[in-house]
């Protein structure tokens, strides 16, 4: 029986019984349930894709078989007709207009048979090619896309912080909470994780990956990062490598546009570029 995690109760009219540790445990239990659901959905999606591929193979095979059978039936009918004409010509020794007509028809029949044979052979060749088609690369690509999407979902509540000075034996979670509270004027900073990443380098603070309690809280932090300008501290989304590469391309577009005197910004990881006079007219 599934038992949903229970949020610590708050007694009305009395001091709150909710502790920070209790809140963290509750958020962690929600995160665990979300990961379990994602893993289950991924398995179900892979099973559906497997069935779709098998169904596609069967459909193509049946269509080819039906086409070949139709052509073979036509060839058989033509051969029967040609055989009757040849037999009729053999039974008579007297040339006639009808006989000449049948002879011409027989020649046409032979040409048609030859043409149909070529079509059947081409269909058979196509059939053999389809049989040899390796759909494994397609499956691998679909699996890769699913894994990328799964990794994106895992990072939904993550943020990356650059430029915070690193202290020996520091409490990284407490450090980040204090910095965000003081620098971004956020009253309550709800974090579930804060981890330094990479190898420790002298006189250089490693970047920090944090996990917040909700997407609303994440957007609230990002919306106030302009107040960090000039501090050497930056807060960005935690993107997978593929999305980072796409973002770098968009940033390059913005840089080139600005060199050309255009108005350009990055919004939702996409470049928006306009002529400056067009921007001014829209304001």
Oligomer: single chain
User: What is the average of the pLDDT values?
Assistant: 76
Number of beta strands: 6
Order of helices and strands: HHHEHEEHEHEEH
Which term fits the overall shape?
elongated
Question: How far apart are the first and last residues' alpha carbons, in Å?
Answer: 58 Å
As laid out across the biggest beta sheet, the strand order is 2-3-1-4
Strand content: 5-15%
What's the story with the biggest beta sheet? 4 strands, antiparallel
Task: Work out the helicity level.
Answer: 55-70%
If helices are DSSP runs of H or I spanning 4 or more residues, what is the number of helices?
7
Total of domains: 3
Radius of gyration: 36 Å
Low-pLDDT parts are 1-16, 93-100, 279-283
Summary keywords:
283 residues, alpha+beta, Alpha-Beta Plaits, 3 domains, four-stranded antiparallel β-sheet, two-stranded antiparallel ribbon, 7 helices, elongated, disordered N terminus, disordered C terminus
Characterise this structure.
With 283 residues, the protein is an alpha+beta fold. The two termini are 58 Å apart. The strands form 2 sheets. A 4-stranded antiparallel beta sheet has the order 2-3-1-4. The chain has helices spanning 20-91, 97-132, 136-154, 172-184, 215-223, 241-259, 276-282; strands at 158-162, 191-196, 208-212, 234-237, 263-267, 270-274. The protein is elongated and about 110 Å long. A hairpin with a 2-residue loop joins strand 5 and strand 6 (270-274). It has 3 domains: 20-154; 157-238, L1 transposable element, RRM domain (Alpha-Beta Plaits, 2-Layer Sandwich), CATH 3.30.70; 240-283, no CATH class. It has 7 helices and 6 strands, in the order H-H-H-E-H-E-E-H-E-H-E-E-H. The model is unreliable at 1-16, 93-100 and 279-283 (pLDDT under 50).
């Amino acid at each position: 029986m599934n038992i949903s995690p229970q949020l610590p109760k708050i007694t009305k009219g009395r001091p709150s019984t909710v502790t920070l540790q209790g809140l963290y445990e509750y958020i962690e239990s929600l995160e665990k349930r979300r990961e379990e659901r994602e893993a289950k959905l991924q398995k179900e999606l892979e099973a559906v894709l497997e069935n779709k591929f098998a169904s596609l193979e069967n459909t193509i095979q049946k269509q080819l078989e039906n086409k070949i059978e139709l052509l073979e039936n036509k060839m058989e009918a033509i051969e029967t007709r040609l055989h009757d004409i040849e037999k009729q010509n053999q039974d008579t020794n007297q040339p006639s207009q009808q006989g000449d007509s049948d002879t011409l028809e027989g020649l046409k029949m032979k040409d048609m048979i030859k043409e149909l044979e070529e079509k059947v052979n081409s269909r058979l060749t196509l059939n053999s090619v389809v049989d040899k088609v390796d759909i494994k690369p397609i499956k691998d690509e679909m699996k890769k896309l699913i894994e990328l999407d799964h990794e994106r979902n895992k990072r939904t509540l993550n943020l990356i912080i650059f430029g915070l000075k690193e202290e020996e034996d520091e409490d990284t979670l407490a450090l980040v909470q204090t910095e965000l509270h003081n620098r971004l004027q956020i009253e309550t900073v709800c974090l579930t994780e804060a981890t330094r990443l990479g190898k420790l380098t002298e006189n250089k603070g490693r970047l920090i990956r944090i996990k917040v309690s909700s997407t609303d809280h994440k957007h609230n932090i990002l919306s106030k990062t302009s107040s960090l300008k000039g501090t050497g501290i930056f807060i960005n989304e935690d993107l997978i490598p593929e999305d980072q590469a796409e973002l770098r391309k968009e940033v390059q577009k913005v840089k080139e546009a600005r060199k050309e005197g255009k108005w350009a910004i990055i919004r939702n990881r996409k470049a928006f570029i306009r002529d400056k006079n067009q921007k001014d007219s829209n304001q």
